[in-house]
């Protein structure tokens, strides 16, 4: 046993610890550090104070404290909050968490005779559950606003750059010509769905656990629904044991973040490819690129690569806390404290990633001339199949015929547009002189007029849908055609 451990056995817990009365010996210093959470949950100072004021008001309303005592608590907490906001709050030994630190400081300001009444009927179990829900709700509302800004950037670029045509890819192979705007909007609709799911996450977590006590509820007749209203919750957690043990809202937040970062990772990969010298479709701003320590010609898409890497970190945070909660017994267990650094890291990662991606998309420059150069004649092979379909040939047959045309062009070392009508007729006599119209990329794009397609008006309609979402918060359904 080292000297610090020996001293701990002889000492008592700090007087302002919320649990010290039962114990006659102090904590091992290593255990003190291992146990503390203030280094993380200090971020919840405002939510903890707001919850404490609401709790004090509820106790005042049932006669546990007087109006004067409540006013003193409210006054004292305003000072405490200002100290946190101005970075002048002095953390002291024994401040193991934000609840202890705030209550200790409140007692120094207004005296323990009044401050000591604050915790009446309350447990840190329902207190931290409340703080977490309030903090996550506030942070997700910030993320919602940032995600709207990202979506607005995508919509604005799609609207302004609708004329640019580029190769569309499947399996990383050039497939069919599409509008650059159509590609942008494909991710716009991913992020629009993320926005909708985020709203569901916020709605689901927005219930109040305060008043549940350690696990069995409150004996003082406090009005839990009034507390919930004061704190902006839509309702209460209906079972006190469930209320203090529920961390599903953290998992749902991280699960949302994992799915969102999966979308971020995909657009980052596309842009890494599009910004490469092999493609050259876009140029990234210097603000989101770095160079090589050895090769001076390099301009690396570090922002995009980091976004991809952060998506893996987000998946790890979700998996880690899922594993922590797995097989826990009912009610509160200290394992749950590990959710605090996990959710803080998740929120920071998500908020920063949205801002970085918004910055990348708003500052990159498009190189439409390189997009045009990458449009190969073979990408129009489907146009030949569709041409024959309109002449009444079954698609399965036209697909085979079109493939034979491609094989012939490869054999002769030509593009399919260079074969000429006679060569095409040697493959199938139903090709006519008008087949030449199939070999225009712009025309191929404009034929995709069905809703959701890449024709100009179809893309315009998609832009209108996302603009309506940003304006009203609701995704308009496709309107049925009028007959």
In DSSP terms, counting alpha (H) and pi (I) runs of 4 or more, how many helices? 20
Radius of gyration: 31 Å
- What gross morphology would you assign? elongated
Strand content: under 5%
Biggest sheet details: 2 strands, antiparallel
Taken in chain order, the helices and strands follow as HHHHHHHHEEHEHEHHEHHEHHHHHH
Topology, number of strands: 6
What number is the mean pLDDT? 92
Name the structural class: mainly alpha
Strand order of the largest sheet: 1-2
**What is the end-to-end distance?**
87 Å
Q: What is the share of helical residues?
A: 55-70%
Instruction: Please mark out the parts with pLDDT under 50 across 5 or more consecutive residues, or reply none.
Output: 478-483
What does this 3D model show about the protein?
- By secondary structure, the protein is mainly α.
- Helix content is 59%, strand content 4%.
- The chain is built from 20 helices and six strands.
- The protein has helices at 3-10, 29-35, 38-41, 45-61, 67-85, 98-110, 112-115, 124-160, 180-205, 224-230, 240-245, 248-274, 302-325, 339-363, 368-373, 381-389, 395-412, 421-427, 441-446, 456-472; strands at 165-170, 173-179, 207-208, 235-236, 282-283, 365-366.
- A two-stranded antiparallel ribbon has the order 1-2. Strands 3-4 form a two-stranded parallel ribbon. Strands 5-6 form a two-stranded antiparallel ribbon.
- α4 packs across α8 and α8 runs antiparallel to α20 (456-472).
- The chain starts with a helix and ends in an 11-residue tail after the last helix.
- Residues 478-483 have low confidence and may be disordered.
